[in-house]
Every structure is written in structure tokens, then in C-alpha cells.
């Protein structure tokens, strides 16, 4: 398709230009382009948003001037061409129509009809974990993920969270490696560790899944459930810092030495979570008088004081980095 993506606004309504538009779609058809490629290429040709709606297959595809294909509704002022089976293609140009908009819509409709027939490969049956795996795959196209969501009974634009769990959690799920991916609209209490991805349109579930896995890496015995939205800059840190770099940090190495002392890491986690010695003691169900000696021991190993906001921030960062390293296999 390289070299063939012509902006429709640059073509006149003459026979030569019409042949170019026809040839554009003929090449898509003969090359058996995927539906994502059809929508994306058509939007680049038109220079404006276009879309394809096939409710029987759960397809609600759109793209804006060659951008990424997403799931989106039919715009109110779009020009629409209906096909059999409730299928519709549309073009939504701002302002006056381009000279060849009618022809583009006609050839878009023809190409959609042909390619829909070519692409109607049967997917796994309803409830099959393979459907969930397809929904969460970065390598799957928007059309394939839309079909999988349709078979799961989930609208492509419906809000959905993905959880990354180390144990069984209620909801549609599939085991991916050592982590269970769960599709849900609500987060329930769990006995195991859980990373909670952001609520996104279901078609973007792969992004929520990656975020959930990042959140899972920040879990600990003291904080078994972590929400990605609450990580802030720590979410970016997980993608940028290597395990070897973490292990080489003096603060992390000091925590490794302290971890050999029972309950020390749990106490330091509680101090960072509560912000005070008394509250940390209460959270750990200990009398606050038992804390000073242990904190003094931690300070001697860490090499900095913990009774200031700066010291506790440094401790918290080291603790979170250590979690990233400890949970790297998740």
C-alpha cells in the first residue's frame, strides 16, 4: 500500500481520479487486507474520520486520518452507506464534502463487504479462555479483539478493568504464565496478591492488563492489593529501571540486610504507610514503646534518619524498588 495512500482532497472529480480511488480499494481487496488495515487506509485516503460498524460480529471500528484503529460510535453527522446484515460504513468530514466522497463511500462499502466475508474466521466458543487471551493480546488487531469481546458478551466501548492476580479471583479469567488475568467491572476482596488495572473501554483491555501487571509488581505482604491509578510516577519507574540497577542501589542493599531480621521490612512498610511511629505500631498491633529500638537499628543499617519526611520518602522509594525486584517474575 506504500505510495498508494492518496489524500482525497487532492483529487478532482474526473475519470482519472475516480480510477485511482477504485484502484486503491481494489488493491486492498486483492491483497485481502485486514479490516483494521481497510479502516486505517481509508481514513488516510479521505483525510478524515471513517468507520465500519458490523453489529453481528461485534465490530465498531473507526480511525481518524490514518491514526490508530479504535472502537467508536457512528458520529451524528456522518455520511453512511448501509450493507446487508446491518453493516454500515461511514465517513465524517468537517465542512463541505470532497469531490469524490460519494465514490469513496461506495468503494469502502464494497471492500468492507468482501473483506468481512474473508475475515469471518470462527473464533473460540463463548467462555473459552482463548477469547480472553485474544482480548488482552497486544498483537491482535482491533477487529479481532472486538469479535472476541462480542462473543464474551462485552461491548467494545463498555468500561472494563483487568486484574493481575496470583490466586483465583471471581470473574472471567485466564492463566497467562504464572499470573491470572481477570476481566471485571468491580474489585472484590482477595486472599492473594492483586494488581488492579485502570477502568478503560473494553477494546483497550490490553493496556489495562499491562498496567495491572505493573501494579502487581508493587504488592507486598503488607500491601497485597495495589491499584495502578494510585502509583503515580512509580508506574513509569517500573518501566525504566532495570533489576541490576535496583540491586546495586545502596539503600536497597541495606534493606536486603534488614530483611534477614524478622518483621523488619513489615515494620518499615507500616512506617511509610502511616507516617508516624504510633500509627505504625497500632497497624502492627504492637505497643509503640517497642518501636524506637528497632527503628534505631534500621537507621544504623540504612545510614539515614527516618524521623523526617525526606528520610521516610527515601525509605519508601527504596522499599518500592525492592518490591519491583522481588516481584520481577510476576
Task: Give the topology.
Layout: H1 15-30, H2 35-46, E1 49-54, E2 59-64, E3 70-71, E4 79-82, E5 88-91, H3 101-118, H4 129-135, H5 142-151, E6 159-165, E7 172-176, E8 179-184, E9 194-196, E10 200-201, H6 205-217, E11 225-227, H7 233-240, H8 243-248, H9 250-258, H10 264-274, H11 277-283, H12 291-302, H13 309-326
Parallel strand pairs: 9-11
Antiparallel strand pairs: 1-2, 1-5, 2-3, 4-5, 6-8, 6-9, 6-10, 7-8
Structure, described:
By secondary structure, the protein is an alpha+beta fold. It has three domains: 1-118, no CATH class; 129-237, no CATH class; 241-327, Arc Repressor Mutant, subunit A (Orthogonal Bundle), CATH 1.10.10. It is built from 13 helices and eleven strands. It has helices spanning 15-30, 35-46, 101-118, 129-135, 142-151, 205-217, 233-240, 243-248, 250-258, 264-274, 277-283, 291-302, 309-326, and strands at residues 49-54, 59-64, 70-71, 79-82, 88-91, 159-165, 172-176, 179-184, 194-196, 200-201, 225-227. Strands 6, 7, 8, 9, 10 and 11 form a six-stranded mixed β-sheet that branches. The protein has a five-stranded antiparallel β-sheet with strand order 3-2-1-5-4. Helix 10 crosses helix 13 (309-326). It starts with 14 loop residues before the first helix and ends with a helix. 35% of the residues are buried.
Q: Which word captures the global form?
A: elongated
Mean pLDDT: 88
The arrangement of helices and strands along the chain is: HHEEEEEHHHEEEEEHEHHHHHHH
Number of helices: 13
Main beta-sheet annotation = 6 strands, mixed
Query: How many whole angstroms does the radius of gyration measure?
Result: 27 Å
Query: How many strands?
Result: 11
**Unreliable sequence segments:** 1-5
Distance between the termini: 40 Å
Strand content: 5-15%
What's the assembly state of these chains? single chain
Structural class: alpha+beta
Q: How many structural domains does the protein architecture include?
A: 3
Please bin the fraction of helical residues: 40-55%
Protein name: PucR C-terminal helix-turn-helix domain-containing protein
Pfam family, one: HTH_30
InterPro entries: CdaR-like_regulators (IPR051448), PucR_C-HTH_dom (IPR025736), PucR_C-HTH_sf (IPR042070)
Domain PucR C-terminal helix-turn-helix: 267-320
Amino acid at each position: 500500500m506504500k505510495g498508494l495512500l492518496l489524500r482525497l482532497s487532492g483529487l478532482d472529480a474526473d475519470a482519472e481520479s475516480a480510477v485511482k480511488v477504485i484502484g486503491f480499494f481494489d488493491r486492498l481487496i486483492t491483497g485481502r487486507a485486514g479490516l483494521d488495515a481497510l479502516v486505517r487506509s481509508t481514513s488516510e485516503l479521505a483525510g478524515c474520520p471513517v468507520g465500519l460498524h458490523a453489529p453481528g460480529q461485534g465490530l465498531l471500528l473507526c480511525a481518524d486520518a490514518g491514526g490508530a484503529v479504535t472502537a467508536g460510535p457512528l458520529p451524528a453527522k456522518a455520511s453512511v452507506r448501509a450493507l446487508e446484515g446491518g453493516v454500515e460504513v461511514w465517513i465524517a468530514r468537517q465542512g463541505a464534502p470532497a469531490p469524490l466522497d460519494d465514490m469513496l463511500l461506495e468503494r469502502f462499502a464494497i471492500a468492507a463487504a468482501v473483506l468481512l466475508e474473508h475475515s469471518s474466521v470462527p473464533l473460540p466458543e463463548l467462555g473459552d479462555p482463548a477469547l480472553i487471551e485474544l482480548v488482552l493480546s497486544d498483537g491482535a488487531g482491533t477487529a479481532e479483539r472486538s469479535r472476541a469481546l462480542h462473543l464474551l458478551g462485552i461491548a467494545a466501548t463498555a468500561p472494563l478493568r483487568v486484574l493481575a492476580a496470583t490466586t483465583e479471583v471471581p470473574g472471567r479469567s485466564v492463566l497467562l504464565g504464572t499470573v491470572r488475568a481477570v476481566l471485571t467491572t468491580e474489585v472484590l476482596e482477595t486472599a492473594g496478591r492483586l494488581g488492579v488495572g485502570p477502568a478503560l473501554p473494553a477494546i483497550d483491555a490490553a493496556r489495562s492488563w499491562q498496567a495491572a501487571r505493573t501494579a502487581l509488581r508493587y504488592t507486598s505482604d503488607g500491601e497485597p492489593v495495589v491499584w495502578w491509578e494510585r502509583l503515580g510516577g512509580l508506574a513509569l519507574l517500573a518501566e525504566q529501571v532495570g533489576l541490576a540497577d535496583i540491586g546495586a542501589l545502596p539503600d536497597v542493599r541495606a534493606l536486603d540486610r534488614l530483611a534477614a531480621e524478622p518483621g523488619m521490612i513489615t515494620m518499615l512498610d507500616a512506617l511509610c504507610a502511616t507516617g508516624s511511629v504510633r500509627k505504625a505500631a497500632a497497624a502492627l498491633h504492637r505497643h509503640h514503646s517497642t518501636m524506637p529500638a528497632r527503628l534505631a537499628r534500621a537507621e544504623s543499617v540504612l545510614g539515614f534518619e527516618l524521623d523526617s519526611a525526606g528520610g521516610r520518602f527515601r525509605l519508601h522509594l527504596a522499599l518500592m524498588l525492592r518490591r519491583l525486584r522481588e516481584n520481577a517474575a510476576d
